[in-house]
Specification:
This protein is mainly α. The chain has two domains: 185 residues, no CATH class; 34 residues, no CATH class. The chain has eleven helices and four strands, in the order αααββααααβααβαα. The strands form two sheets. The chain has a two-stranded antiparallel sheet with strand order 1-2. Strands 3-4 form a two-stranded parallel sheet. The radius of gyration is 17 Å and the shape is globular.
Length: 228
């Protein structure tokens, strides 16, 4: 299902066709997929018990799912550990009525001091552990271990315009160039526009070698707790 209603039917079909034309050649795609599944299997004794422990710590209804744009513009349900209080989505409009918060949201796509996030949620986000359930999305093939950020349906055409087809020609990732950039301050120091630029650059040219380097740097980012 294509998810770019604001561009109209003709634009939607055009983006889908162009995305299909950017499809990776089979050997490269299959090698990346095989590597992902191998790493997930090898590290299962680490991430499996960790995920169970975090689920118990979060408590009732530990998972949160949201529609995101996947390969070739198709929608999928992306999973996270719940890091916000109940009813958080409905409170966003109230928070953004504050001009300072609104400017911060426009620049970074998030708030440094978001009152909707629980204390445990803040810790999970700093170490990117709220994204651990996305391993299921990778196993299903909705996502990759490394790729562009999974965008909301309303973001892709609005933010990328004509380049949208290129971004959705690869699977979105659990981690990516955006997560390991920004120096010691991590991705928090990047503006929303800078994250878009990094995602587009990844979609235009990535290799297994660059993916492995991003994975290694992601480990450091997780240990430093540079997320938000």
């Amino acid at each position: 299902m294509m998810v770019l209603p604001s561009t109209g039917v003709v634009m939607t079909e055009l983006i889908l066709r162009r995305a299909l034309s950017f499809r990776l050649i089979w050997p490269a795609w299959s090698a990346k997929r095989a590597l992902e599944l191998l790493l997930i299997a090898m590290l299962a004794p680490l991430w499996g018990p960790l995920l169970v422990g975090l689920m118990l710590a979060v408590g009732r209804a530990p998972f949160y799912a949201q529609d995101r744009v996947g390969l070739h513009g198709r929608l999928f349900r992306m999973w996270k550990l719940r890091s916000m209080r109940p009813g958080a989505e409905g409170q966003l409009a109230v928070l953004l009525s504050d001009p300072l918060r609104r400017r911060e949201w426009i620049r970074h796509g998030k708030l440094a001091r978001d009152p909707r996030i629980t204390p445990l949620g803040q810790w999970l986000r700093r170490h990117s552990l709220d994204e651990l359930p996305q391993i299921w999305n990778v196993i299903r093939g909705d996502m990759a271990l490394v790729g562009p950020r999974p965008l909301l349906p309303g973001e892709i055409a609005r933010e990328y315009g004509a380049a949208a087809a290129r971004v959705v020609s690869v699977r979105p990732g659990m981690t990516g160039s955006w997560q390991v950039s920004g120096g010691m301050n991590g991705r928090n120091s990047l503006s929303y526009a800078e994250r878009l630029r990094l995602d587009l650059a990844y979609a235009r040219g990535s290799t297994l070698r660059s993916d492995l380097m991003i994975l290694l740097r992601t480990v450091g980012a997780i240990l430093r707790g540079s997320g938000r």
